[in-house]
């Protein structure tokens, strides 16, 4: 994942926004009415699915860990894989998805 790609930059902004959140803040509902932790996990799953498609491997569920404080790390890892294996159009689409979810938190 290069600091120059839009996905890395957008994920960095999202992680900067949520990285210090406490469990009650993760559990609170965002603008869409979905708990924030669920929204970020759904984003992580969306990114993981696109990465699997780009790599030509089966889609697998991303584990939902007991502690939402791990979500920023999961997001970084999955986004790094997608930035590495996805083409420019997919990376741009993923960056837009991250921006959209960020706006809903």
Write a brief caption for the model:
With 105 residues, the protein is mainly alpha-helical. The protein has one domain (6-104). 67% of the residues lie in helices and 0% in strands.
Question: Can you characterise this structure?
Answer:
By secondary structure, the chain is mainly alpha-helical. The chain has one domain. It is built from five helices and no strands. It has helices at residues 6-18, 23-27, 36-55, 71-85, 88-104. Helix 1 (6-18) packs antiparallel against helix 4, helix 1 (6-18) packs parallel to helix 5 and helix 3 runs antiparallel to helix 5 (88-104). The longest helix is centred in the middle third of the chain and has 20 residues, at 36-55. It is globular. The two termini are 24 Å apart.
How many beta strands in the DSSP annotation? 0
Pattern of helices and strands: HHHHH
> How confident overall, as mean pLDDT?
94
Query: How many domain units?
Result: 1
H/I helix tally: 5
Helix amount: 55-70%
Low-confidence stretches: none
Gap from first CA to last CA: 24 Å
Q: What is the molecular shape? A: globular
The major beta sheet can be summarized as: none
Task: Using the CA coordinates, give the radius of gyration.
Answer: 13 Å
Structural class: mainly alpha
Proportion of strand residues: under 5%
């Amino acid at each position: 994942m290069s600091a120059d790609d839009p996905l890395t930059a957008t994920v960095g902004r999202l992680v900067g926004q949520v990285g210090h959140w406490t469990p009650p803040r993760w559990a609170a509902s965002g603008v869409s009415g979905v708990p924030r932790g669920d929204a970020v996990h759904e984003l992580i799953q969306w990114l993981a699915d696109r990465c699997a498609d780009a790599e030509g491997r089966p889609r697998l569920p991303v584990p939902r860990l007991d502690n939402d404080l791990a979500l920023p790390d999961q997001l970084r890892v999955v986004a790094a894989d997608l930035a590495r294996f996805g083409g420019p159009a997919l990376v741009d689409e993923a960056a837009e998805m991250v921006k959209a979810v960020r706006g809903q938190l």
